[in-house]
Specification:
Largest sheet: none
Number of strands: 0
Number of helices: 9
Shape: rod-shaped
Radius of gyration: 29 Å
Distance between the termini: 61 Å
Strand content: under 5%
């Protein structure tokens, strides 16, 4: 959307025409976006997703910077050969204006990428670079596995069985294994997930 607004409102349509401006601006938007997705994905894998999501996005965007700069230079060189008037609207390569423009573009790109990743994650559930919920809960899922059963644990087990919950759901809630729940259920003389029902399984 930002690319198309730039194509319509920027100076490119007057130089390249509508179709040329759209192709030029989209080429400067889609490929850098893909490169940033790739570097952010690699960064999240490399650091094992232990950092906050916004920081992972920032590292990915900054890592993509050199590759994006080379790609933009390549695209501008080709576009400048096709539309010589484009060179007049761009700062000279390796000039002070060029480096200032590049730094400003890089800063905007990093901020926008962080905002997009975090907003998509918080509002749309886009968890591509965020730790999956099951990975986050893996450590404490069986936290009490093998621990001694207390009177409070037994009371909770009776209550959960009486409510009709299946062994797997009870195991998740009590942070024990399904086998441990079944063994304790049998030891307490509970049957068929019903408190006091001693009929066969």
């Amino acid at each position: 959307m930002l690319a198309m607004l730039s194509a319509v409102l920027g100076p490119y349509a007057a130089i390249m025409g509508g179709a040329g401006a759209a192709a030029y601006v989209l080429s400067l938007a889609i490929v850098p976006w893909w490169l940033t997705c790739l570097t952010t994905h690699l960064a999240s894998k490399r650091i094992r997703r232990k950092l906050p999501l916004w920081l992972i996005a920032a590292i990915g965007a900054m890592a993509a910077g050199p590759f994006v700069s080379l790609y933009v230079y390549f695209v501008n060189s080709i576009a400048g050969d096709i539309w010589p008037a484009l060179n007049a609207s761009l700062p000279a390569t390796f000039s002070t204006g060029h480096f200032k423009s590049a730094a400003l573009s890089e800063g905007r790109a990093v901020v926008l990428w962080i905002a997009f990743v975090v907003i998509f994650h918080e509002t749309l559930g886009w968890a591509r670079f965020a730790p999956p919920a099951k990975e986050a809960n893996c450590e404490d899922r069986f936290q009490l596995s093998g621990a001694e059963w207390t009177a409070e644990d037994d009371a909770l087990l009776r209550s959960l069985i009486g409510s009709g919950k299946p062994p797997r759901a009870i195991a998740m809630e009590m942070k024990r294994t399904v086998g441990g729940i079944r063994a304790r259920t049998a030891k307490l003389g509970l049957r068929n997930n019903r408190h006091g029902d001693r009929s066969g399984d």
